[in-house]
């Protein structure tokens, strides 16, 4: 594993060596050191997204990162780019985040092929470049989905029309990623790992900018998603796997197929707006995720979440308030409707209560708010300091699900403080 | 009448001089380049990474490392500077939306680089304009 992790660095080095003939190979990089602590109830922050985990003991690891990018022109219109990112939440193992060939067809169209960052949200294709946005981390009410990159194609088009500038992307590809998530159990917090596989990923994005102060964005993606759990009984994905086999054993094969988290077609739709004028900064974004396979795959989470940020530039200082809201739920009602009344899985275990038990798992059922106050200070044009205080509030109560959810711990409110230094070169 | 027109010339001359002095800099390309002249608004789009090609050729943007020429250009043309400009370009560079600009050490370096790099476009102070470059616009 250690040897494997050196591969990206060798790749970057060989790109540099191969392009020595063109003296123009360009190196750029970025990074951030983030320190964080949670000061309530001596537990982890209950809204970890991409494996980030903060707790009462201050830690510097989860969101810290370092990246190096090399771009080599191969021809007047073709270039090769590799970006290696080492993330603290991944033990700073260097991995290719981007590795692509870009062909500039003309002054409007460009085609990229290779490993590319998913442009789901306004900030997702540069969500690790702290230098490029005001918060320490982009608001987690929206930026909590786990896939970050894909392998495939990206066709982009750009056009200026009067005071407007338009940038469109059409993408196609697939991704495979292992994602670690902290899970709160009655005996403490543990880390579970899921293997996420998305294929037939197809998407369209449209970014527009008016006179450089108003930005509007809309995007839609469809993909077929498969989750595989690590078998840990506390892992919600593994629990769904177990439930599937129970339904199979009881002879409810259609229901079992519907529950499996495999090959579920999903539709993402995202809209955002940004206003940056007269020192004011307003950012708002909404995302929706829907399973579009009817009753089948009803356990893939449905999501509706959004945030709004308002800030004011006092020279180099930018204070910012953000309110985020997140709602994620399983379609338990749909699952139940496909079963005969009174269906039993095991003696004493009705199908309905088994479905409720999974659907009420607080790792899958999210209903919460984020209230943030942050400050960004630009120390130099390439170094910024940031502070961010987040109050997290869960509106979800396991008691809403009755005895089915008795085994779960209610998510609790928590406060988190993050401090960061970001840089680019 | 003759006296009158002389008087008019005398009146206008300082205005012409001050108009020339007002132009702080120029966007330049290689001497023999076939890239056509452009206005300040188009130059702004160009240096904000929104014009990948000019005359069918990939653009290589030259930003001066620091100094008065850069300051003038950022104030008068880009209307962006400092951390705001870095953040803007970070987004373009690290997402592959635009090729990263190349840094130039000063007016002389820009003049050398536009003539040695195909597709290179830079900016220099007005006083540094000479026969080695073609001016696309003044600002």
SSE map:
The complex is a heterodimer of chains A (425) and B (139).
Chain A: H1 2-18, E1 26-38, E2 65-73, E3 78-87, E4 94-104, E5 109-117, E6 149-161, E7 164-185, E8 188-210, E9 214-228, H2 236-249, H3 253-259, E10 264-277, E11 280-291, E12 302-312, E13 317-329, H4 332-337, E14 344-346, E15 349-350, H5 351-359, E16 366-380, E17 383-394, E18 414-424
Chain B: H1 2-22, E1 25-30, H2 40-47, E2 53-54, E3 57-58, E4 60-64, H3 68-78, H4 82-93, E5 102-104, H5 107-116, E6 120-125, E7 133-138
Parallel strand pairs in B: 4-5, 4-6
Antiparallel strand pairs in B: 1-6, 1-7, 2-3
Describe the structure.
The complex is a heterodimer of chains A (425) and B (139). In chain A, α2 (236-249) packs antiparallel against α3. In chain A, β7 and β8 (188-210) form a beta hairpin. Chain A is globular, with a radius of gyration of 23 Å. Chain A has five helices and 18 strands. By secondary structure, chain A is mainly beta. The two termini of chain A are 29 Å apart. In chain A, strands 1-2-3-4-5-6-7-8-9-10-11-12-13-16-17-18 form a 16-stranded antiparallel beta barrel. A two-stranded antiparallel ribbon of chain A has the order 14-15. Mean pLDDT of chain B is 87; it is low at 14-21. In chain B, a hairpin with a 2-residue loop joins β2 and β3. Chain B has a single domain (24-138), classed as Periplasmic binding protein-like II (D-Maltodextrin-Binding Protein, domain 2, 3-Layer(aba) Sandwich), CATH 3.40.190. Chain B has 139 residues and is α/β, with parallel strands linked by helices. The N and C termini of chain B lie far apart (36 Å). Classes of the chains: A mainly beta (425), B alpha/beta (139).
């Amino acid at each position: 594993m250690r040897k494997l992790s050196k591969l990206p660095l060798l790749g970057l080095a060989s790109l540099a060596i191969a392009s020595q003939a063109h003296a123009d190979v360009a190196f750029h990089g970025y990074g951030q050191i983030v320190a964080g602590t949670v000061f309530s109830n001596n537990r982890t922050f209950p809204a970890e997204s991409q494996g980030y985990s903060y707790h009462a003991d201050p830690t510097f690891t989860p969101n810290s990162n370092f990246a190096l990018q090399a771009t080599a022109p191969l021809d007047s219109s073709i270039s090769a780019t590799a970006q290696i990112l080492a993330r603290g939440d991944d033990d700073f193992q260097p991995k290719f985040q981007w590795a692509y060939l870009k062909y500039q067809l003309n002054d409007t169209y460009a085609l990229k092929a290779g490993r590319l960052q998913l442009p789901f949200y306004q900030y997702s294709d540069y969500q690790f470049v702290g230098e490029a946005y005001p918060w320490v981390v982009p608001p987690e009410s929206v930026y909590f989905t786990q896939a970050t990159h894909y392998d495939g194609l990206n066709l982009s088009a750009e056009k200026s029309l009067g005071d407007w500038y338009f940038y469109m992307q059409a993408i196609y590809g697939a991704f495979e990623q292992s994602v670690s998530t902290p899970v709160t159990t009655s005996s403490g917090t543990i880390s579970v790992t899921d293997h996420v596989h998305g294929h037939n990923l197809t998407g369209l994005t449209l970014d527009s900018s008016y006179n450089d102060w108003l930005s509007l964005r809309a995007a839609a993606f469809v993909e077929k998603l498969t989750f595989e759990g690590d078998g840990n009984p506390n892992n919600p994905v593994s629990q769904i796997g177990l439930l599937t086999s129970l339904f199979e054993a009881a002879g409810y094969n259609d229901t079992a197929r519907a529950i499996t988290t495999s090959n579920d077609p999903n539709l993402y739709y995202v809209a955002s707006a940004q206003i940056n004028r007269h020192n004011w900064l307003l950012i708002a974004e909404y995302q929706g995720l829907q399973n579009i396979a009817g009753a089948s795959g009803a356990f893939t989470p449905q999501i509706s979440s959004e945030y709004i940020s308002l800030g004011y530039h006092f020279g180099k200082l930018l204070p910012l308030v953000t309110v985020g809201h997140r709602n994620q739920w399983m379609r338990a009602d749909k699952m139940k409707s496909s079963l005969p009344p009174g269906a039993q899985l095991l003696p004493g275990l009705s199908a309905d209560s088994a479905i409720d038990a999974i659907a009420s798992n607080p790792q899958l059922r999210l209903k919460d708010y984020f209230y943030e106050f942050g400050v960004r200070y630009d120390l130099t044009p390439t170094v910024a300091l940031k502070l961010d205080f987040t109050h997290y509030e869960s509106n979800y109560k396991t008691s809403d699900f009755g005895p089915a959810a008795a085994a779960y711990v209610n998510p609790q409110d928590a406060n988190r403080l993050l401090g960061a230094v970001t840089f680019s070169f | 009448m003759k006296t009158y027109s002389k008087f008019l010339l005398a009146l206008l001359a300082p205005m012409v001089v001050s108009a020339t002095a007002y132009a702080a800099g120029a966007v330049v390309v290689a001497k023999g380049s076939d890239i056509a002249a452009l206005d300040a608004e188009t130059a702004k789009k160009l240096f904000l990474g929104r014009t990948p090609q000019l005359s069918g050729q990939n653009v290589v943007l030259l930003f001066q490392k620091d100094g008065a020429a850069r300051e003038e250009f950022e104030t008068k043309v880009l209307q962006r500077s400092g951390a705001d400009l870095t953040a803007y370009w970070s987004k373009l560079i690290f997402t592959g939306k635009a090729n990263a600009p190349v840094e130039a050490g000063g007016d002389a370096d820009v003049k050398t680089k536009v003539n040695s790099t195909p597709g290179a476009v830079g900016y220099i102070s007005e006083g540094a304009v000479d026969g080695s470059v073609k001016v696309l616009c003044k600002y």
